[in-house]
Write a structure and sequence with these properties.
single chain; alpha/beta; nine-stranded mixed β-sheet; 29 strands; hydrolase
Amino acid sequence: MLEQRYRWKNKHLRMHVSVLDGKTSPTILLKNALYLNQTFRKWMRGNIWIYEDRIVYVGENLPSHIESCEVIDCTNEILVPGYIEPHAHPFQLYNPQTLAAYASQFGTTTLINDNMALVLNLKTREAFSLLKDLRSIPTTMFWWCRFDSQTEILNEVEIFSHSNVKSWLEHDAVLQGGELTGWPRLLNGDDMMLHWIQEAKRMRKQIEGHFPGASEKTLAKMMLLGADCDHEAMTGEEVYNRLMQGYIVSLRYSSIRPDLPELLDDIKRLGIEAYDRLLFNTDGSSATFYEQGMNDQMIRIAIEKGVPIIDAYNMATVNIARYYNIDHLHGQIATGRVANINFLSSIENPTPISVLAKGEWVKRDGVKVDDTYPPLNWQEYGLKPMELDWELTMDDLQFSMPFGIKMENSVITKPYSIAIDVSGDELPHDHDECYFTLIDRKGKWRINTLLKGFASRLSALASSFSNTGDIILIGKNKQDILHAFNRMKELGGGIVMVENNEIICELPLHLSGIMSDLPVEELMVQEKGLSEELLKRGYSFSDPIYSLLFFSSTHLPYIRITQQGMYDVMNKTVLFPSIMR
Protein backbone atom coordinates (compact mmCIF):
# COMPACT_ATOMS: atom_id res chain seq x y z
CA MET A 1 0.00 0.00 0.00
CA LEU A 2 1.04 3.64 -0.23
CA GLU A 3 3.08 3.03 -3.38
CA GLN A 4 1.97 6.30 -4.93
CA ARG A 5 1.40 9.91 -3.96
CA TYR A 6 -2.19 9.30 -2.81
CA ARG A 7 -3.01 7.16 0.20
CA TRP A 8 -5.66 5.27 -1.79
CA LYS A 9 -6.12 5.07 -5.54
CA ASN A 10 -9.44 5.96 -7.14
CA LYS A 11 -10.43 2.30 -7.44
CA HIS A 12 -9.89 1.83 -3.70
CA LEU A 13 -12.04 4.85 -2.87
CA ARG A 14 -14.83 3.54 -5.11
CA MET A 15 -14.61 0.19 -3.33
CA HIS A 16 -14.91 1.92 0.07
CA VAL A 17 -18.07 3.64 -1.07
CA SER A 18 -19.45 0.36 -2.40
CA VAL A 19 -19.21 -1.07 1.11
CA LEU A 20 -21.62 1.61 2.31
CA ASP A 21 -23.87 0.91 -0.66
CA GLY A 22 -24.13 -2.72 0.41
CA LYS A 23 -22.43 -4.00 -2.72
CA THR A 24 -19.24 -5.10 -0.94
CA SER A 25 -18.81 -6.69 2.45
CA PRO A 26 -16.54 -5.06 5.06
CA THR A 27 -13.51 -7.12 6.00
CA ILE A 28 -13.95 -6.47 9.74
CA LEU A 29 -17.05 -5.41 11.69
CA LEU A 30 -16.61 -4.22 15.27
CA LYS A 31 -20.11 -4.41 16.78
CA ASN A 32 -21.41 -2.39 19.71
CA ALA A 33 -18.00 -0.94 20.54
CA LEU A 34 -17.46 1.59 23.32
CA TYR A 35 -14.96 3.88 21.63
CA LEU A 36 -13.35 7.28 22.21
CA ASN A 37 -15.04 9.89 20.04
CA GLN A 38 -12.71 12.87 20.11
CA THR A 39 -15.07 15.15 18.21
CA PHE A 40 -17.59 15.04 21.05
CA ARG A 41 -14.96 14.28 23.73
CA LYS A 42 -17.08 11.35 24.86
CA TRP A 43 -17.02 7.59 25.12
CA MET A 44 -19.71 6.49 22.67
CA ARG A 45 -21.16 3.19 21.44
CA GLY A 46 -21.29 2.38 17.77
CA ASN A 47 -20.51 -0.06 15.01
CA ILE A 48 -17.22 0.28 13.17
CA TRP A 49 -16.93 -1.02 9.63
CA ILE A 50 -13.44 -1.67 8.28
CA TYR A 51 -12.51 -2.49 4.71
CA GLU A 52 -8.90 -3.68 4.46
CA ASP A 53 -6.85 -0.83 5.95
CA ARG A 54 -9.55 1.84 6.28
CA ILE A 55 -12.46 2.64 8.58
CA VAL A 56 -15.34 3.15 6.14
CA TYR A 57 -18.11 3.88 8.65
CA VAL A 58 -18.68 4.60 12.34
CA GLY A 59 -22.21 4.90 13.65
CA GLU A 60 -25.38 3.06 14.62
CA ASN A 61 -25.96 1.20 11.33
CA LEU A 62 -24.89 -2.33 10.46
CA PRO A 63 -23.80 -3.51 6.99
CA SER A 64 -26.28 -5.49 4.89
CA HIS A 65 -23.62 -7.89 3.63
CA ILE A 66 -21.15 -9.60 5.96
CA GLU A 67 -20.57 -12.85 4.07
CA SER A 68 -16.77 -12.41 3.98
CA CYS A 69 -16.50 -10.28 7.10
CA GLU A 70 -14.86 -10.97 10.47
CA VAL A 71 -17.52 -9.97 13.01
CA ILE A 72 -16.38 -9.13 16.54
CA ASP A 73 -18.67 -8.35 19.45
CA CYS A 74 -16.93 -5.49 21.29
CA THR A 75 -19.55 -5.07 24.04
CA ASN A 76 -16.98 -5.74 26.76
CA GLU A 77 -14.03 -3.87 25.22
CA ILE A 78 -12.96 -0.22 25.01
CA LEU A 79 -11.53 1.08 21.75
CA VAL A 80 -9.12 3.99 21.30
CA PRO A 81 -7.09 5.12 18.27
CA GLY A 82 -3.64 3.67 17.72
CA TYR A 83 -1.00 5.76 19.50
CA ILE A 84 1.42 8.00 17.62
CA GLU A 85 5.09 8.49 18.57
CA PRO A 86 6.03 11.92 17.18
CA HIS A 87 9.72 11.82 18.11
CA ALA A 88 11.29 8.45 17.32
CA HIS A 89 15.03 7.99 16.82
CA PRO A 90 14.73 4.52 15.26
CA PHE A 91 18.40 3.59 15.40
CA GLN A 92 19.29 3.37 19.10
CA LEU A 93 20.77 -0.08 18.46
CA TYR A 94 17.34 -1.20 17.21
CA ASN A 95 16.28 -0.39 13.66
CA PRO A 96 13.09 1.20 12.22
CA GLN A 97 11.44 -2.13 11.42
CA THR A 98 12.17 -3.85 14.74
CA LEU A 99 11.16 -0.75 16.71
CA ALA A 100 7.87 -0.59 14.79
CA ALA A 101 7.16 -4.27 15.44
CA TYR A 102 7.88 -3.92 19.16
CA ALA A 103 5.98 -0.65 19.61
CA SER A 104 2.89 -2.11 17.95
CA GLN A 105 2.51 -4.57 20.83
CA PHE A 106 1.95 -1.60 23.14
CA GLY A 107 -0.48 0.13 20.80
CA THR A 108 1.90 2.58 19.08
CA THR A 109 1.00 2.09 15.42
CA THR A 110 2.42 5.29 13.90
CA LEU A 111 6.04 6.48 14.18
CA ILE A 112 7.41 9.85 13.07
CA ASN A 113 11.10 9.11 12.65
CA ASP A 114 14.41 10.94 12.69
CA ASN A 115 16.27 10.47 9.40
CA MET A 116 19.76 11.19 10.78
CA ALA A 117 21.21 7.67 10.53
CA LEU A 118 19.88 7.30 7.00
CA VAL A 119 21.33 10.64 5.86
CA LEU A 120 24.77 9.94 7.37
CA ASN A 121 25.08 6.32 6.28
CA LEU A 122 23.05 5.78 3.10
CA LYS A 123 22.83 7.27 -0.33
CA THR A 124 19.59 9.17 -0.90
CA ARG A 125 18.39 6.58 -3.41
CA GLU A 126 18.98 3.77 -0.91
CA ALA A 127 17.27 5.68 1.89
CA PHE A 128 14.19 6.41 -0.19
CA SER A 129 14.01 2.78 -1.28
CA LEU A 130 13.92 1.79 2.41
CA LEU A 131 11.20 4.36 3.12
CA LYS A 132 9.15 2.92 0.28
CA ASP A 133 9.48 -0.67 1.46
CA LEU A 134 8.67 0.26 5.05
CA ARG A 135 5.27 1.42 3.82
CA SER A 136 4.29 -2.24 3.46
CA ILE A 137 4.53 -3.03 7.18
CA PRO A 138 1.47 -2.62 9.44
CA THR A 139 2.95 0.37 11.26
CA THR A 140 2.58 3.75 9.56
CA MET A 141 6.01 5.38 9.16
CA PHE A 142 6.56 9.10 8.71
CA TRP A 143 9.92 10.91 8.77
CA TRP A 144 11.79 14.12 9.58
CA CYS A 145 14.23 16.06 7.46
CA ARG A 146 17.36 17.06 9.36
CA PHE A 147 19.13 20.32 8.50
CA ASP A 148 22.45 19.67 10.29
CA SER A 149 24.59 16.77 11.46
CA GLN A 150 24.42 17.48 15.22
CA THR A 151 28.21 17.24 15.28
CA GLU A 152 31.30 18.52 13.43
CA ILE A 153 31.77 16.18 10.49
CA LEU A 154 34.29 16.58 7.69
CA ASN A 155 31.79 16.57 4.80
CA GLU A 156 28.73 18.28 6.22
CA VAL A 157 28.34 20.60 3.23
CA GLU A 158 28.15 17.57 0.95
CA ILE A 159 25.77 15.48 3.09
CA PHE A 160 23.50 18.39 3.99
CA SER A 161 23.63 19.98 0.58
CA HIS A 162 20.71 22.00 -0.67
CA SER A 163 19.74 19.31 -3.16
CA ASN A 164 19.82 16.53 -0.55
CA VAL A 165 17.82 18.49 2.01
CA LYS A 166 15.31 19.60 -0.61
CA SER A 167 14.80 16.03 -1.85
CA TRP A 168 13.99 14.93 1.71
CA LEU A 169 11.71 17.90 2.36
CA GLU A 170 9.75 17.15 -0.80
CA HIS A 171 9.26 13.49 0.08
CA ASP A 172 5.63 12.60 0.79
CA ALA A 173 6.53 10.67 3.96
CA VAL A 174 8.36 13.64 5.52
CA LEU A 175 6.20 15.68 7.92
CA GLN A 176 8.70 18.07 9.47
CA GLY A 177 12.04 19.78 9.31
CA GLY A 178 14.41 19.41 12.23
CA GLU A 179 14.89 18.82 15.01
CA LEU A 180 16.87 22.06 14.99
CA THR A 181 19.95 21.04 16.97
CA GLY A 182 21.89 23.62 14.93
CA TRP A 183 19.63 26.52 15.87
CA PRO A 184 22.52 28.75 17.10
CA ARG A 185 23.74 28.83 13.48
CA LEU A 186 20.30 29.97 12.44
CA LEU A 187 20.32 32.82 14.96
CA ASN A 188 23.83 33.75 13.81
CA GLY A 189 22.70 34.27 10.23
CA ASP A 190 22.66 30.90 8.45
CA ASP A 191 20.32 31.84 5.60
CA MET A 192 20.46 28.41 3.96
CA MET A 193 18.92 26.85 7.06
CA LEU A 194 16.35 29.64 7.15
CA HIS A 195 15.56 28.96 3.49
CA TRP A 196 14.96 25.27 4.29
CA ILE A 197 12.61 26.28 7.08
CA GLN A 198 10.78 28.57 4.67
CA GLU A 199 10.50 25.73 2.18
CA ALA A 200 9.12 23.39 4.86
CA LYS A 201 6.52 25.98 5.82
CA ARG A 202 5.59 26.48 2.17
CA MET A 203 4.95 22.73 1.96
CA ARG A 204 2.75 22.93 5.11
CA LYS A 205 5.29 20.90 7.07
CA GLN A 206 6.21 21.58 10.68
CA ILE A 207 9.52 22.61 12.26
CA GLU A 208 10.67 20.81 15.41
CA GLY A 209 12.93 22.76 17.74
CA HIS A 210 15.64 21.65 20.14
CA PHE A 211 15.90 24.44 22.68
CA PRO A 212 17.04 23.17 26.10
CA GLY A 213 17.24 25.99 28.63
CA ALA A 214 16.23 28.60 26.05
CA SER A 215 15.22 32.00 27.39
CA GLU A 216 11.86 33.57 26.66
CA LYS A 217 13.55 35.90 24.17
CA THR A 218 15.27 33.02 22.34
CA LEU A 219 12.01 31.08 22.20
CA ALA A 220 10.31 34.13 20.71
CA LYS A 221 13.06 34.57 18.12
CA MET A 222 12.87 30.91 17.08
CA MET A 223 9.10 31.15 16.76
CA LEU A 224 9.57 34.16 14.46
CA LEU A 225 12.04 32.16 12.37
CA GLY A 226 9.60 29.30 11.95
CA ALA A 227 9.77 26.82 14.85
CA ASP A 228 6.44 25.22 15.72
CA CYS A 229 7.12 22.73 18.51
CA ASP A 230 9.76 21.94 21.13
CA HIS A 231 10.34 18.82 23.23
CA GLU A 232 13.08 20.16 25.54
CA ALA A 233 10.98 21.60 28.39
CA MET A 234 12.37 20.20 31.65
CA THR A 235 10.20 22.13 34.12
CA GLY A 236 6.62 23.31 34.26
CA GLU A 237 7.82 26.87 33.88
CA GLU A 238 9.54 25.94 30.62
CA VAL A 239 6.31 24.33 29.42
CA TYR A 240 4.45 27.53 30.32
CA ASN A 241 6.97 29.77 28.54
CA ARG A 242 6.72 27.70 25.36
CA LEU A 243 2.94 27.75 25.42
CA MET A 244 3.01 31.53 25.97
CA GLN A 245 5.15 31.97 22.85
CA GLY A 246 2.73 29.93 20.75
CA TYR A 247 4.54 26.58 20.68
CA ILE A 248 3.11 23.11 20.64
CA VAL A 249 4.90 21.46 23.59
CA SER A 250 5.94 17.82 23.37
CA LEU A 251 6.29 16.38 26.89
CA ARG A 252 9.17 13.93 27.19
CA TYR A 253 9.56 10.64 29.04
CA SER A 254 12.85 9.11 27.90
CA SER A 255 15.74 7.04 29.17
CA ILE A 256 17.94 10.09 29.77
CA ARG A 257 15.14 12.59 30.53
CA PRO A 258 12.24 10.78 32.29
CA ASP A 259 10.65 14.17 32.99
CA LEU A 260 6.96 13.48 32.45
CA PRO A 261 5.80 12.86 36.05
CA GLU A 262 7.43 16.07 37.31
CA LEU A 263 6.23 18.05 34.29
CA LEU A 264 2.64 16.99 34.93
CA ASP A 265 2.94 17.93 38.62
CA ASP A 266 4.29 21.35 37.60
CA ILE A 267 1.58 21.83 34.99
CA LYS A 268 -1.05 21.21 37.66
CA ARG A 269 0.74 23.55 40.11
CA LEU A 270 0.84 26.31 37.49
CA GLY A 271 -2.86 25.98 36.78
CA ILE A 272 -2.47 24.87 33.16
CA GLU A 273 -5.77 23.17 32.37
CA ALA A 274 -5.77 23.16 28.56
CA TYR A 275 -4.06 20.09 27.10
CA ASP A 276 -4.86 20.43 23.40
CA ARG A 277 -1.41 21.92 22.59
CA LEU A 278 0.48 19.24 24.50
CA LEU A 279 1.90 16.00 23.02
CA PHE A 280 3.71 12.96 24.40
CA ASN A 281 7.09 11.64 23.17
CA THR A 282 9.72 9.13 24.31
CA ASP A 283 12.62 10.77 22.40
CA GLY A 284 14.33 7.64 21.06
CA SER A 285 14.91 5.86 24.35
CA SER A 286 17.27 2.93 24.74
CA ALA A 287 15.65 -0.46 24.19
CA THR A 288 15.52 -1.48 27.85
CA PHE A 289 13.61 1.70 28.74
CA TYR A 290 10.74 0.39 26.62
CA GLU A 291 10.49 -2.88 28.51
CA GLN A 292 7.27 -1.82 30.24
CA GLY A 293 5.77 -0.06 27.24
CA MET A 294 6.03 2.98 25.05
CA ASN A 295 3.43 5.74 24.60
CA ASP A 296 0.94 3.69 26.62
CA GLN A 297 3.22 4.25 29.61
CA MET A 298 2.92 8.01 29.18
CA ILE A 299 -0.87 7.84 29.05
CA ARG A 300 -0.85 5.74 32.23
CA ILE A 301 1.37 8.23 34.03
CA ALA A 302 -0.87 11.11 32.95
CA ILE A 303 -3.99 9.34 34.22
CA GLU A 304 -2.26 8.61 37.53
CA LYS A 305 -1.28 12.29 37.79
CA GLY A 306 -4.90 13.40 37.46
CA VAL A 307 -4.93 14.50 33.82
CA PRO A 308 -8.50 14.14 32.47
CA ILE A 309 -8.59 10.70 30.85
CA ILE A 310 -9.68 11.86 27.40
CA ASP A 311 -6.91 14.48 27.37
CA ALA A 312 -4.40 11.80 28.36
CA TYR A 313 -5.37 9.72 25.33
CA ASN A 314 -5.55 12.78 23.06
CA MET A 315 -1.93 13.72 23.82
CA ALA A 316 -0.85 10.41 22.27
CA THR A 317 -3.32 10.43 19.38
CA VAL A 318 -5.43 13.23 17.92
CA ASN A 319 -3.37 16.15 19.29
CA ILE A 320 -0.35 14.80 17.40
CA ALA A 321 -2.35 14.07 14.25
CA ARG A 322 -3.86 17.55 14.18
CA TYR A 323 -0.49 19.20 14.73
CA TYR A 324 1.05 17.30 11.79
CA ASN A 325 -2.01 17.84 9.56
CA ILE A 326 -2.67 14.10 9.28
CA ASP A 327 -5.87 13.94 11.36
CA HIS A 328 -7.83 13.12 8.20
CA LEU A 329 -5.97 9.79 8.32
CA HIS A 330 -4.77 9.21 11.89
CA GLY A 331 -5.46 9.84 15.53
CA GLN A 332 -9.21 9.14 15.56
CA ILE A 333 -11.71 6.35 15.25
CA ALA A 334 -13.87 7.93 12.58
CA THR A 335 -15.00 7.38 9.01
CA GLY A 336 -12.17 7.61 6.50
CA ARG A 337 -9.29 7.06 8.91
CA VAL A 338 -6.66 4.35 8.68
CA ALA A 339 -7.79 1.36 10.75
CA ASN A 340 -5.33 1.73 13.64
CA ILE A 341 -7.31 0.69 16.72
CA ASN A 342 -6.33 -0.40 20.23
CA PHE A 343 -8.62 -2.68 22.26
CA LEU A 344 -8.39 -2.05 26.01
CA SER A 345 -9.53 -4.05 29.01
CA SER A 346 -10.43 -0.84 30.86
CA ILE A 347 -10.40 2.90 30.24
CA GLU A 348 -7.71 3.34 32.91
CA ASN A 349 -5.35 0.77 31.34
CA PRO A 350 -3.93 2.12 28.05
CA THR A 351 -1.87 -1.01 27.26
CA PRO A 352 -3.98 -2.82 24.65
CA ILE A 353 -4.95 -6.47 24.73
CA SER A 354 -5.48 -6.43 20.96
CA VAL A 355 -4.16 -4.11 18.23
CA LEU A 356 -5.24 -3.43 14.66
CA ALA A 357 -2.65 -1.67 12.50
CA LYS A 358 -3.77 -0.75 8.97
CA GLY A 359 -6.65 -3.17 9.53
CA GLU A 360 -4.29 -6.06 10.28
CA TRP A 361 -4.17 -7.85 13.63
CA VAL A 362 -0.69 -7.47 15.10
CA LYS A 363 -1.78 -8.45 18.63
CA ARG A 364 -4.80 -10.56 19.52
CA ASP A 365 -6.11 -11.33 23.01
CA GLY A 366 -2.78 -10.47 24.61
CA VAL A 367 -0.69 -12.52 22.18
CA LYS A 368 1.61 -11.22 19.46
CA VAL A 369 0.51 -12.24 15.96
CA ASP A 370 3.46 -13.86 14.20
CA ASP A 371 4.85 -12.92 10.79
CA THR A 372 3.16 -9.52 10.59
CA TYR A 373 6.55 -7.78 10.35
CA PRO A 374 8.62 -9.97 8.00
CA PRO A 375 12.38 -9.31 7.97
CA LEU A 376 13.79 -6.92 5.40
CA ASN A 377 16.74 -7.58 3.11
CA TRP A 378 18.83 -4.80 4.60
CA GLN A 379 21.69 -5.23 2.14
CA GLU A 380 19.44 -3.89 -0.62
CA TYR A 381 19.62 -0.50 1.12
CA GLY A 382 23.37 -0.59 1.70
CA LEU A 383 23.01 -1.72 5.31
CA LYS A 384 25.35 -4.67 5.61
CA PRO A 385 28.07 -5.76 8.06
CA MET A 386 31.00 -3.37 8.28
CA GLU A 387 34.02 -4.27 6.22
CA LEU A 388 37.16 -2.62 7.58
CA ASP A 389 40.16 -2.94 5.27
CA TRP A 390 42.66 -1.48 7.73
CA GLU A 391 44.40 -2.56 10.93
CA LEU A 392 44.53 -0.89 14.33
CA THR A 393 48.05 -0.88 15.81
CA MET A 394 49.75 0.22 19.01
CA ASP A 395 50.96 3.28 17.11
CA ASP A 396 47.33 4.43 16.98
CA LEU A 397 47.14 4.30 20.77
CA GLN A 398 49.58 7.08 21.63
CA PHE A 399 48.24 9.67 24.08
CA SER A 400 49.79 13.09 24.64
CA MET A 401 46.94 15.61 24.79
CA PRO A 402 47.14 18.04 27.76
CA PHE A 403 43.46 17.83 28.60
CA GLY A 404 40.76 15.20 28.48
CA ILE A 405 37.00 14.82 28.68
CA LYS A 406 35.20 14.48 32.01
CA MET A 407 31.70 13.06 32.16
CA GLU A 408 29.23 15.01 34.31
CA ASN A 409 26.31 12.66 33.60
CA SER A 410 25.27 10.25 30.84
CA VAL A 411 25.65 12.88 28.11
CA ILE A 412 27.21 16.11 29.43
CA THR A 413 31.01 16.33 29.17
CA LYS A 414 33.51 18.98 30.32
CA PRO A 415 37.25 19.44 29.74
CA TYR A 416 39.76 18.65 32.50
CA SER A 417 43.54 18.83 32.82
CA ILE A 418 45.34 15.50 32.59
CA ALA A 419 47.70 15.03 35.53
CA ILE A 420 48.59 11.34 35.27
CA ASP A 421 51.29 9.48 33.34
CA VAL A 422 49.77 8.15 30.11
CA SER A 423 52.98 6.89 28.49
CA GLY A 424 52.54 3.22 29.41
CA ASP A 425 50.36 0.49 27.92
CA GLU A 426 48.04 0.25 30.90
CA LEU A 427 46.40 2.64 33.38
CA PRO A 428 45.89 1.68 37.05
CA HIS A 429 42.44 0.97 38.50
CA ASP A 430 42.72 3.45 41.40
CA HIS A 431 41.18 6.25 39.32
CA ASP A 432 38.37 6.67 36.80
CA GLU A 433 40.41 7.76 33.78
CA CYS A 434 40.58 5.68 30.60
CA TYR A 435 42.26 5.92 27.23
CA PHE A 436 39.76 7.35 24.75
CA THR A 437 40.03 7.25 20.96
CA LEU A 438 37.67 8.21 18.14
CA ILE A 439 38.87 6.73 14.87
CA ASP A 440 37.50 7.03 11.36
CA ARG A 441 35.65 3.92 10.21
CA LYS A 442 37.62 4.19 6.97
CA GLY A 443 40.88 4.40 8.90
CA LYS A 444 41.93 7.83 7.65
CA TRP A 445 42.13 9.85 10.90
CA ARG A 446 41.98 9.55 14.67
CA ILE A 447 41.93 11.62 17.82
CA ASN A 448 43.23 10.43 21.21
CA THR A 449 42.59 11.80 24.66
CA LEU A 450 41.54 10.57 28.13
CA LEU A 451 38.00 10.03 29.38
CA LYS A 452 37.30 10.62 33.06
CA GLY A 453 34.20 9.35 34.85
CA PHE A 454 33.11 6.66 32.38
CA ALA A 455 34.54 3.72 34.34
CA SER A 456 37.32 2.89 36.80
CA ARG A 457 37.90 -0.81 36.04
CA LEU A 458 37.15 -1.07 32.32
CA SER A 459 39.95 -2.85 30.49
CA ALA A 460 38.63 -2.32 26.96
CA LEU A 461 35.53 -1.44 24.99
CA ALA A 462 35.24 -1.00 21.22
CA SER A 463 32.08 0.41 19.66
CA SER A 464 31.05 1.11 16.08
CA PHE A 465 27.86 2.63 17.52
CA SER A 466 28.37 6.38 17.67
CA ASN A 467 26.75 9.57 16.42
CA THR A 468 28.64 9.43 13.13
CA GLY A 469 29.29 5.69 12.79
CA ASP A 470 32.98 6.17 13.55
CA ILE A 471 34.68 3.88 16.05
CA ILE A 472 35.00 4.57 19.78
CA LEU A 473 37.72 2.90 21.84
CA ILE A 474 37.71 3.20 25.65
CA GLY A 475 39.73 1.37 28.28
CA LYS A 476 42.76 1.05 30.52
CA ASN A 477 44.68 -1.68 28.69
CA LYS A 478 45.95 -1.08 25.17
CA GLN A 479 46.38 -4.78 24.31
CA ASP A 480 42.77 -5.45 25.33
CA ILE A 481 41.66 -2.42 23.31
CA LEU A 482 43.31 -3.97 20.24
CA HIS A 483 41.58 -7.28 20.99
CA ALA A 484 38.19 -5.58 21.40
CA PHE A 485 38.64 -3.71 18.12
CA ASN A 486 39.62 -6.84 16.22
CA ARG A 487 36.62 -8.75 17.58
CA MET A 488 34.31 -5.88 16.63
CA LYS A 489 35.83 -6.00 13.16
CA GLU A 490 35.15 -9.77 12.94
CA LEU A 491 31.51 -9.20 13.90
CA GLY A 492 31.04 -6.66 11.13
CA GLY A 493 30.36 -3.96 13.71
CA GLY A 494 29.06 -3.84 17.25
CA ILE A 495 30.03 -3.19 20.84
CA VAL A 496 32.65 -5.48 22.38
CA MET A 497 34.07 -5.54 25.91
CA VAL A 498 37.35 -7.35 26.66
CA GLU A 499 39.20 -8.04 29.89
CA ASN A 500 42.45 -10.00 30.35
CA ASN A 501 42.37 -10.90 26.67
CA GLU A 502 38.92 -12.51 27.05
CA ILE A 503 35.65 -11.30 25.57
CA ILE A 504 33.34 -10.31 28.44
CA CYS A 505 30.33 -9.42 26.32
CA GLU A 506 29.51 -8.43 22.77
CA LEU A 507 26.55 -6.84 21.05
CA PRO A 508 26.69 -7.38 17.26
CA LEU A 509 25.41 -4.56 15.04
CA HIS A 510 25.20 -6.17 11.62
CA LEU A 511 23.51 -3.20 9.94
CA SER A 512 26.56 -1.06 9.07
CA GLY A 513 27.79 -1.29 12.63
CA ILE A 514 25.09 1.11 13.82
CA MET A 515 21.96 -1.04 14.25
CA SER A 516 21.03 -4.57 15.28
CA ASP A 517 18.88 -6.85 13.15
CA LEU A 518 17.52 -8.65 16.22
CA PRO A 519 13.98 -8.18 17.54
CA VAL A 520 13.88 -5.56 20.29
CA GLU A 521 13.08 -8.21 22.90
CA GLU A 522 16.33 -10.04 22.12
CA LEU A 523 18.28 -6.82 21.83
CA MET A 524 17.15 -5.86 25.34
CA VAL A 525 18.88 -8.96 26.74
CA GLN A 526 22.15 -8.01 25.07
CA GLU A 527 21.83 -4.36 26.10
CA LYS A 528 21.16 -5.33 29.71
CA GLY A 529 24.21 -7.59 29.70
CA LEU A 530 26.41 -4.77 28.42
CA SER A 531 25.03 -2.32 30.98
CA GLU A 532 25.52 -4.77 33.84
CA GLU A 533 29.15 -5.41 32.90
CA LEU A 534 29.81 -1.67 32.65
CA LEU A 535 28.19 -1.08 36.05
CA LYS A 536 30.50 -3.69 37.57
CA ARG A 537 33.43 -1.71 36.19
CA GLY A 538 32.42 1.65 37.56
CA TYR A 539 29.96 3.16 35.07
CA SER A 540 27.69 5.18 37.36
CA PHE A 541 25.27 6.98 35.05
CA SER A 542 21.85 6.07 33.71
CA ASP A 543 22.37 5.22 30.03
CA PRO A 544 25.65 3.94 28.52
CA ILE A 545 24.09 3.66 25.06
CA TYR A 546 23.39 7.38 24.99
CA SER A 547 26.84 8.08 26.40
CA LEU A 548 28.39 6.35 23.38
CA LEU A 549 26.00 8.10 20.99
CA PHE A 550 26.54 11.63 22.30
CA PHE A 551 30.33 11.80 22.74
CA SER A 552 30.40 13.56 19.35
CA SER A 553 27.14 15.48 19.61
CA THR A 554 27.79 19.22 19.54
CA HIS A 555 24.22 20.20 20.42
CA LEU A 556 25.21 19.46 24.04
CA PRO A 557 27.85 21.24 26.17
CA TYR A 558 30.75 21.55 26.72
CA ILE A 559 33.52 19.55 25.06
CA ARG A 560 33.08 16.95 22.30
CA ILE A 561 35.28 14.56 20.36
CA THR A 562 34.39 14.89 16.68
CA GLN A 563 35.66 14.08 13.20
CA GLN A 564 37.28 17.50 13.06
CA GLY A 565 38.92 17.10 16.47
CA MET A 566 38.37 18.15 20.08
CA TYR A 567 35.56 20.68 19.89
CA ASP A 568 34.61 23.50 22.27
CA VAL A 569 30.83 23.72 21.90
CA MET A 570 30.31 27.07 23.62
CA ASN A 571 33.00 28.84 21.58
CA LYS A 572 32.39 26.80 18.40
CA THR A 573 36.10 26.11 18.05
CA VAL A 574 38.22 23.07 17.21
CA LEU A 575 40.79 23.01 20.02
CA PHE A 576 42.90 20.14 18.69
CA PRO A 577 42.39 18.82 15.14
CA SER A 578 42.11 15.13 14.36
CA ILE A 579 45.32 13.45 13.20
CA MET A 580 45.70 11.80 9.82
CA ARG A 581 46.90 8.19 10.14
